[in-house]
Amino acid sequence: MSETSSPERDLIRGALMPSLVVGVLGIVIAAVTRGKAGLFAAVLAQLVVVMYFTVHLVVSSISRKLDPLTTFALALFSYFAKIALLGVGLWLISRFTSRETIDRASFGVVALALTIAWLGGEIRSFLKLQLHLPLPTQGTSSDSGKPDIPGA
Fold first, then answer.
1. 134, part of any domain
2. pTM confidence score
3. pLDDT for position 2
4. Which domain does 37 fall in, by range?
5. Domain count, the chain
6. Structure confidence at residue 111 (pLDDT)
7. Around Cβ 81, how many Cβ atoms within 10 Å?
8. Number of neighbours of residue 111 by Cβ within 10 angstroms
């Protein structure tokens, strides 16, 4: 990992490549099998999945230097906001578009395939990061070599 690179940037880069390949394949297959409605559905699925996962990594990079409680609160808020916005977006699509415009089955299949590709790429790039996490120091008593346990 270079000095200008961050773990989140490496994770995005590692996840974006497989999801773009799967996305292009999904767009082509959906367009061939379902026509224009499949094309629109697959493109929309690509946008939704990439935005959803990118927000997660952006929040992770923002919260890197914050204390754990603030990081936890920010993560919970971002998950709630993403689920709420995803629900509203899906409701708007189902309410204001016809099945002839956006094929629901193509959207679902492409979104699932993209999610699997993104998570697989992110896991693969995470395993390559070689992060060195600091381990907590344990106080040892000088006479026994065992950790000090208060009240024991």
1. no
2. 0.75
3. 46
4. 7-129
5. 1
6. 94
7. 12
8. 21
Rounded to an integer, what distance in angstroms lies between the CA atom of residue 129 and that of residue 6? Answer: 10
Q: What is the pLDDT of residues 100-141, one digit of tens each?
A: 899 999 999 999 999 999 999 988 988 887 766 666 676 555
Q: Return the closest-CA partner of residue 45 out of 25, 61, 64, 62.
A: 25
Q: How does pLDDT run across 32-89, given as a tens digit for each residue? A: 999 999 999 999 999 999 888 888 878 877 887 888 888 888 888 888 988 998 899 8
Name the residue among 86, 85, 88, 64 with its Cα closest to residue 75: 64
Residue 142 lies in a domain: no
Residue 140 is classified by DSSP as B
Expressed in angstroms, the distance from the first to the final Cα of the chain is: 44
Please report, as a single letter, which amino acid is at residue 102: I
Domain membership of residue 149 (yes or no) is no
Report the distance separating Cα 44 and Cα 110, nearest Å. Answer: 9
Q: Is 119 part of any domain?
A: yes
Polymer length of the chain: 152
φ, ψ of residue 133 in degrees (nearest 5) = -90, 135
Q: Between the CA of residue 81 and those of 18, 38, 64, 86, 131, what are the distances in Å?
A: 26, 28, 19, 8, 29
